[in-house]
Every structure is written in structure tokens, then in C-alpha cells.
Amino acid sequence: MPNYVFLVVFILIYSLICFYIAYNGWVWLKAAFSFRYKKTYSFLIAGLSSALFISYFIPSFFLEVIGGFWMAIVGYSMIILPLANVLYFLFKRRNTLKIGLGFTISAFFIFVLIYGSYNAWSPVVREYEVSLNEQFDEWQGEEMRILFVADLHLGNVIGERHLQRLVDITSRENPDLIFLGGDIINDNISPFQENELLDVISKMQAPLGVFAVPGNHDYYGGDLLLLRDEMVTAGFHFLMDEVVTIEDTMSIIGRHDYSNEERKSIQELTSEIVDDELPIFIIDHQPREIDVAEEAGAHFIFSGHTHRGQLMPANLITSALFENDWGHLQRNQLHSFTTSGFGFWGPALRIGSRSEVMMITVTY
Prior knowledge:
Blueprint: H1 3-33, H2 38-55, H3 61-90, H4 95-121, E1 124-131, E2 143-149, H5 160-173, E3 177-180, H6 190-194, H7 198-201, E4 210-212, H8 216-220, H9 224-233, E5 237-238, E6 242-246, E7 250-254, H10 266-270, E8 280-283, H11 290-295, E9 300-303, H12 314-321, E10 327-331, E11 334-338, E12 356-363
Parallel strand pairs: 1-12, 2-3, 3-4, 4-5, 7-8, 8-9, 9-11
Antiparallel strand pairs: 2-12, 6-7, 10-11
Helix pairs in contact: 1-3, 1-4, 2-3, 3-4
Pfam families: Metallophos (PF00149)
Keywords: Membrane, Transmembrane, Transmembrane helix
GO molecular function: hydrolase activity
């Protein structure tokens, strides 16, 4: 399908959905409050439905946040409104039911905006413990603390304030090693540079270093190499299909994102490891090749990307698409960790997921 045809079809479908939502809202407002300001209401709906698209041409915190909220309303409305319409017709179009359903749905959306905002902007630290004693007896008793975070999506909405929360968590947890699992920026590096976020993120430090990989959103704006330069300036190791050995302790493989069709396979990368007696740690933005990592003899694979659906029931989709869409999964010698992410994409909301940082304590 040509791009312009797809665009026309998308605009048509999206417009019909917005009209459906707007019509239901108008019917309720008239019944509950005798609301008669049709032009004002139409202008409001037009502004809400176009805000996110306008923000692509006019970067704006306000437009992105409002547009994101509207997208969440659209998503949930497509589940709730058809059910409400069916109930209304089943009970013979009773006006009291119409008003009651409207208040109930409005209360639900208020809950989503308040609770979802709290989950998105209030990160938690999730602790995990993994033992490798049976595989590396010669290092028995040693311990390493790894801070793993992904999906920062730094941009016009997620900026210095939220990033500082991550820096504060890092200082408090005092990890030995830090992994950044991709989607560091939200498509465009300009807000990162204009808001001088390099000065903030460079405060993330660990004795064994900070290792980062790109995610799909780090490619979209064509700024991947600029991002790499920024990360190197921050003192980070930005790995794109590279292998690094740390102090005879571990081999770290940092991969290009799955969306890069030219990236090396896990087998190609493991063949570059010099000391095959060391545990292998893989950082791979999307958790699509857990089975391949296991077969290649890796001991850890760290991923993000899924956001754990971000807004339920999308978590049902991510759990169906990925073997480990969130949390810790063990496959024989391999430990898979997939984080729900520190930031968010689209709506500044999380329902059924939480902004998080993973702290993994590895004992040998």
C-alpha cells in the first residue's frame, strides 16, 4: 500500500473513532448538564485529537502530554464505549442509565489520569538475587550489584527532573556496574542536547563502568551516531555489536537493536569472546532472542522495549509476543531480565505497570 493511501485511510479511521467518542460525550453532557455549547465542544475535541500530531511539527511539552492523554482516552474508549452503548440499548434507553454510565466512565478516566501519572513519574527499585555458585565455584563468595535500566525516552516530556530521579537512585543504590538497555532518547536528540541532559546523565557512575546499547527509538531520528558521541562524552561504553571483557570477571556483549537488519548474530558475537571461562552478559534492547542466547551459552540477557504494555490490557499483548515481557526468567543457565522501563512512550501514564529500575545482586 502506497504511503499516501495508508495516510488517508489512517486519517479517515482515526477521525471516525474521534467522532464516535465525541458523539457519546456530547449525548452525555446534554443529558447530565443540559450542555449546549456545540462549537466550544467541537473546538475542544479537535484540539485534543490533533495535539499529538501537531507536536511532531511544533515540539511542545504541553502538546505531547495533552495529546498523549487523549490517545489513552481513545484506547480505553474503544473498549468501554461499545459496552456502554450495548447496556444502554438493552435497558431500553433509560435516561438515568445514560447519565450514570457517563459519570462512571468519566470517573474511570479521572482515575486513569491520576493513578497512571503517579505510576509513570514515581519509579520503584525492584531487587533480584541470582546465584552462579554451581557454575563458577572458583569465585565462590564474590558478589556484584548491577543496576539495569532501559527506555528512558528522554525528550520534550521526559527531561531533567525525571532523569535526576534516576541519578538519585543510582547514587543511593551504589551499584558495581550499570547497564542501559536502549531507547535512551525519544526519536530526536535535539531536546537531549538543548536541555543539557548530558550534564545530568553523566552523573551515573559505577566502579566497573556504565554500558549502554541503542534501542529502536534511538534510530528513528537518524541521530544514533550523535547519541553515541554524547554517551562516550558522558563516560559510558556505548556498544553496538561489540564485546568487552571486564577485569577477568565477565564478558559483556552489547547489541544493535533488533530493528537493525545488519546486526551481528549472537553466535557471531560470542565467537569474539577471548576467555570462554567467564560468564557472558548480553544487553539486547528487545527480548526476542532469549532462546538463541541460551543456546549460545550466555548467562544473562538484559532487555527492555515492552514497557510491560504500559497501559493494561496491552500487557496481555506483550506477554503473548515475548517469552519474558517483564521480570526475571530462567532458562537453564541463562537468566533473562526484562524491565518495564524508566520512562514511557506516548501517554505520560502507566496502568498495570510502573516506572522502575532493576537492581540485580549476582553471587558467585
